[in-house]
Write a structure and sequence with these properties.
Blueprint: E1 12-18, E2 27-33, H1 51-64, E3 67-73, H2 75-81, H3 83-97, E4 104-108, E5 120-123, H4 131-152, H5 160-163, H6 169-178
Helix pairs in contact: 1-4, 2-3
């Protein structure tokens, strides 16, 4: 069972991102404030859930949350500020959109850029430990998947509806054959380095 909060009696937001390791598409982040009494036995780290389950849980999270929001940072912005800073920016954008501002932020991972003066805690594997971070991971992942499915219609040869922009063999083969699109992150190593044996 996931923990409901780190600090009781405090308005706590969970934050997580999706798409950090992708070669194409934006990075998405979500921020979620859940009611203190909220429980749901199926909510877990989005990576441990099936796609069908994530989409089933998304409306439950949105309807139950005190506040929720999704922030997006484009591939172009990622190339300018790097993926780590882009992940922080996506979380900040999500937090800024919340209709209720949190008094404490729980962040998945081991690093974060302070959001104003709001105290925060970095939680390694937090999406498997805290309900609000798990909920944020589900929203970030499903909204990013929606986006990748949408742009896959324009560029079907990269099969983004299947790989969601991650560095699969099929994705890299398509880059090799067709080149890159405006959605690709030019600062990333898009193709495997060729090793020459002498």
């Amino acid at each position: 069972m996931l923990l409901k909060c780190k600090n009781s009696g405090v308005i706590e937001a969970g934050c997580d991102e999706a798409g950090r390791g992708c070669l194409a598409g934006p990075v998405f982040a979500a921020a979620v404030i859940l009611p203190p009494d909220f429980e749901h036995e199926l909510i877990s780290d989005s990576k441990k859930l099936t796609e069908k389950m994530r989409y089933r849980l998304r409306p439950i999270i949105q309807e139950s949350a005190v506040a929720w929001a999704v922030g997006v940072v484009s591939a172009e912005e990622i190339d300018k500020i790097n993926i780590l800073n882009a992940s922080f920016l996506a979380m900040h954008r999500a937090l800024k959109q919340l209709t209720i501002q949190p008094e404490f932020i729980l962040v998945d991972g081991n690093r974060f850029k302070p959001y104003g003066k709001t105290p925060f805690s970095c939680e390694v594997k937090g999406d498997g430990r805290f309900l609000s971070i798990a909920a944020a991971s589900i929203l970030a992942k499903t909204y990013r998947d929606d986006y990748m499915n949408d742009i896959a219609k324009e560029f079907p040869q990269y099969t983004w509806d299947v790989n969601k922009g991650y560095p699969t063999k099929a994705h890299r083969d398509a880059i090799r054959e067709f080149g890159i699109t405006p959605h690709h992150r030019k600062s990333f190593q898009l193709l495997d380095r060729q090793l020459t044996l002498f």
